[in-house]
Design goal:
Elements (H helix, E strand, L loop, with lengths): L19 E3 L20 E20 L2 H22 L3 E13 L2 E10 L10 E9 L5 E7 L3 H8 L3 H5 L18 E8 L2 H9 L25 E12 L5 E9 L2 E6 L13 E17 L5 E18 L2 E17 L3
Antiparallel strand pairs: 1-7, 2-3, 2-13, 3-4, 4-5, 5-6, 7-8, 8-9, 9-11, 10-11, 11-12, 12-13
Length: about 325
């Protein structure tokens, strides 16, 4: 499965999914909106820690005879043990700074360090994200850079929404009218390939099945449509320090799609192979705290994801379910 060879970085995130279209209330002349008021030169340094746990269930192998079924099942279970071992905590220190302010908008820069690739002794290099926050909370394009060209290229594999989610202020509702207790609903589009990347990547035993290459241009967006995620954000008011408090809950509808294997590479004992991907459930709860000047102070996120994969080659079928539980915490450096 070539999809597993995508080298885009996997880092703890502050938000899950693409940009959300919130059904926000219209700002009245007498109302104030939540804004980033920090002056140029102001910044914040945060520690971000994330962990992921993978759990395999419902593994079924059929169509290969008793001995063949048992052998492949044993290989796949060993593969998933390796995946679970990867689900250790990741951490990074990330800084966010207001570079400049003007009537045209506020320029923000996010910095952290990363290594050019896994399994390398190359020293970590800085990664930078630049973005212009326009009046009213509208966000401009994200620009990524690094002194290491290979590292910058890895991050450019990510879509704009994924890149934006790597900044600690990604989910900040700038430009929104705030009244304690208000609930605002929204909808976002979540690309599905990143959800399945880890689960598909630990099945080298299936690489000779001529399964679809999900990362190729031959797989269209119609074959892998985005997952719709519905969100509800609640503004909880301000604490004694003047911090703004938010809570968000998200859930996706079940999603299923079947992709056929390459037409020119039939399976040895039958026609084209196929891969059926299903999102059985996805839910998330997050809490975020922003300082009185609008910069992020802290955040916590917990999400659960249940995926099912069915691979077919002729009479042979492999089906398994993966439960993914992720947490991410963001807090001031030193706390």
């Amino acid at each position: 499965m070539v999809a597993a060879q995508n080298t885009a970085p996997a880092l703890p995130r502050t938000s899950f999914g693409g940009a959300t279209r919130w059904n926000a209330a219209t700002l009245q002349p007498s109302q104030a909106a939540f804004e980033l008021k920090a002056p140029a030169g102001t910044g914040v340094t945060l520690t971000q820690v994330g962990s992921t746990v993978f759990e395999l269930s419902g593994l079924e192998v059929s169509g290969l005879g008793n001995a063949g079924n048992a052998a492949l099942e044993q290989q796949l279970r060993a593969n998933f043990q390796a995946l679970d071992a990867l689900g250790e905590s990741q951490s990074r220190t990330v800084s966010l700074q207001v570079l400049s302010r003007s009537p045209a908008g506020t320029e923000l820069i996010t910095r952290w360090s990363d290594t050019p690739g896994t399994g390398t002794s190359t020293p970590a290099q800085e990664v930078q994200l630049r973005q212009l926050l326009l009046p009213g909370g509208v966000r401009g394009p994200v620009e990524v850079s690094s002194p290491d060209p290979a590292l910058a290229a890895r991050y450019r594999l990510l879509g704009s929404a994924e890149l934006e989610s790597l900044s600690p202020e990604a989910a900040a509702p700038y430009g929104t009218v705030l009244e304690a207790g208000d609930r605002v609903s929204g909808l976002s589009q979540q690309p599905v390939l990143p959800l399945f990347r880890a689960a598909l990547g630990v099945a080298p035993a299936l690489r000779d099945w001529a399964l679809p290459d999900l990362s190729s241009a031959e797989v269209s967006s119609a074959e892998l449509p985005a997952l719709e995620v519905r969100r509800e954000r609640v503004y909880q008011g301000q604490n004694s320090r003047g911090d703004f408090l938010f809570q968000t809950q998200s859930r996706a509808q079940p999603w299923q799609q079947t992709v056929q294997g390459p037409a020119g590479i039939p399976a040895p004992d039958a026609g084209r192979s196929s891969l059926t991907l299903e999102v059985l459930d996805m839910a998330q709860m997050s809490q975020a705290v922003y300082r009185a000047d609008g910069l992020p102070h802290s955040a916590f996120e917990f999400s659960t994801l249940q995926l099912q994969v069915t691979a077919r080659r002729g009479a042979a079928t492999v089906r398994f379910t993966v439960q993914v539980r992720s947490t991410s915490a963001l807090r001031p450096l030193g706390n």
